[in-house]
Amino acid sequence: MKTSVVIANFNNEKYIEQCIKSLKSQTYKDLEIIFFDDNSSDNSLDKIKKFSNIKVIENKKQTKYGSINQLNAFKESINQSTGDLIFFLDSDDYFHEKKLETIVSYFKNNDKTKIVFDLPINVYENSNYIEKGNKNFFKTYWPFIHPTSCITIKKIVFDELFTSISSKDFTDVWMDLRICLYAQYVLKNFNRVNKNLTYYRRTENNVSSKFKKYSKNWWKRRSQAHQYFHSFCIKNNIKFKKNLDYLLTKFICSLI
């Protein structure tokens, strides 16, 4: 089973070497690497071109929204891929050496599965934290949200998946949430390998740092996530019912 690792990069020259070396050291060897550079202004392209056997896509046109740029990066990369399985990877993250082997084995043993999630190891400046994927304390529409780099899909589901999630009206709703919702409510097939196989970097400069839990920005993004889910339900003929999470988010956003 051939695998394709599609990498989205924007100004992450500092982390590219670790990202690529984690792929070169995989125990599973049948893979191609596609690196999408989204008009970086740093030395990302110089860094990536030092490596061999990597397809590099140099994009020169961006929107002003990181979430939309990420969708575009992965969509174009998958269009140029040849693998049966697509592994998403943001360029500041990296894989455990047995990730591909473990995920490929899961797909082979569960042939009807179309999307698989693994768990992250959160990487901070001075420490790592192993995520266990616990559920929220009150009922929400979405399960544990696996970071984008923890998501693998079958190539055959690509067109249907991206048609469903590619709305450009919700710019603070990133691809990881969109795919998790698609898996749970459209495929109704939410498969997870309960192993921590992805190193997910947490820095003061990445997107998640702008949405510290219970901050003003966090509540506003949560409100947009609810709006996205409502639109998603209408699009996919899913019954939408306002729950406590929805009502609480709406109330708090009316105060801030």
Note the topology.
Blueprint: E1 3-9, H1 13-24, E2 31-38, H2 44-48, E3 54-59, H3 66-79, E4 85-90, E5 94-95, H4 99-109, E6 115-123, E7 128-130, E8 151-154, H5 158-165, H6 175-187, E9 191-201, H7 216-235, H8 244-255
Parallel strand pairs: 1-2, 1-4, 2-3, 6-9
Antiparallel strand pairs: 4-8, 5-9, 6-7, 6-8
Helix pairs in contact: 7-8
Q: What overall geometry do the principal axes of the alpha carbons give? A: globular
Low-confidence stretches: none
| Through-space gap between termini | 51 Å
Multimeric status of the protein: single chain
Number of strands: 9
CATH homologous superfamily?
Answer: Spore Coat Polysaccharide Biosynthesis Protein SpsA, Chain A
Quote the CATH topology: Spore Coat Polysaccharide Biosynthesis Protein SpsA, Chain A
The CATH architecture category equals: Alpha-Beta Complex
Which structural class is indicated by helix and strand composition? alpha/beta
> Class, according to the CATH hierarchy?
Alpha Beta
Largest sheet: 9 strands, mixed
How much of the sequence lies in strands comes to 15-25%
Total DSSP helices: 8
Number of separate domains: 1
Average pLDDT across residues?
A: 91
Helical amount: 25-40%
SSE order in H/E notation?
A: EHEHEHEEHEEEHHEHH
Rg value? 18 Å
Notes on the structure:
This protein is α/β, with parallel strands linked by helices. It has one domain: Spore Coat Polysaccharide Biosynthesis Protein SpsA, Chain A, CATH 3.90.550.10. The chain has eight helices and nine strands. Strands 1, 2, 3, 4, 5, 6, 7, 8 and 9 form a nine-stranded mixed β-sheet that branches. Helix 7 packs across helix 8. The longest helix has 20 residues. The radius of gyration is 18 Å and the shape is globular. It starts with a strand and ends with a helix.
